[in-house]
Amino acid sequence: MKAVVFKKYGSPQKVLTIKEVARPTSKENEVLIKIKATTVNDYDRSFVRGKPYLYRLMYGLLKPKHPISGMELSGLVENVGYNVGYSVKKLKVGDAVFGVISSYGFGTFAEYISIHENTVIKKPDKLSFEEAAAIPHASRILLKWKLNLKYITIMIQGFFQMSAVLDKGKTLIKDVVEKLSVYLR
């Protein structure tokens, strides 16, 4: 399969190359996804550049631990982990899915990825693959602006969860899926 690979940190124009790499296989609790769409965002740029330097402490001091960048995707489930139908319980072959995978690694700048089933959810039929791939990162920015909160953290993985700390220190839990499903109707 083809993937966008980098072996050292630097300017994306200089370090990113398209290479043929081995197609991953799904392990227990993982799904093999044929990626239909992904995104490029500020995190990907920082990851490839290795700046801020804090990223290097997390993802490889001198060179990247994950040679394939990318953290958001949409695509089709092509296979599920060992014991087909036993390990993976939430998804089946043929399901259209989307999500952000950064809690389990990187690698969406490729044709396929095998990743934990909790990193993706089923894609609503009304969304194109491109629209679905853009939701995880863009929704964080939108909700931060829309809710006008001082501090907000959104984890969009597996099932959407959002926690926001208000100015007065109170914690507000919102169900992002409910908000998005109302918007998509």
Structure description:
This protein has 185 residues and is of the alpha+beta class. The chain folds into 2 domains: 2-122, Medium-chain alcohol dehydrogenases, catalytic domain (Quinone Oxidoreductase, Chain A, domain 1, Alpha-Beta Complex); 129-184, no CATH class. It has helices at residues 12-15, 42-49, 54-59, 129-147, 176-184, and strands at residues 2-5, 17-20, 30-38, 72-80, 96-100, 112-116, 120-122, 151-157, 159-165, 171-174. Strands 6-3-4-5-7 form a 5-stranded antiparallel β-sheet. A 3-stranded antiparallel β-sheet has the order 8-9-10, with helices on one face. The N and C termini lie far apart (37 Å). Mean pLDDT is 77; it is low at 149-185.
Q: Could you tell me the CATH topology label of the largest domain.
A: Quinone Oxidoreductase, Chain A, domain 1
What's the CATH architecture name of the largest domain?
Answer: Alpha-Beta Complex
CATH superfamily of the largest domain: Medium-chain alcohol dehydrogenases, catalytic domain
Q: How many domains make up the coordinates?
A: 2
Question: Which quaternary structure do these chains form?
Answer: single chain
The end-to-end distance, rounded to whole angstroms, is: 37 Å
Overall pLDDT metric:
77
Question: Number of DSSP helices?
Answer: 5
Largest sheet: 5 strands, antiparallel
| CATH class category of the largest domain | Alpha Beta
**Percentage of residues in strands:** 25-35%
Overall 3D form: globular
| Rg calculated over all Cα atoms | 17 Å
Uncertain ranges: 149-185
Task: Report the order of strands and helices.
Answer: EHEEHHEEEEHEEEH
The helix/strand class is alpha+beta
Strand order of the largest sheet: 6-3-4-5-7
Number of strands: 10
Proportion in helices = 10-25%
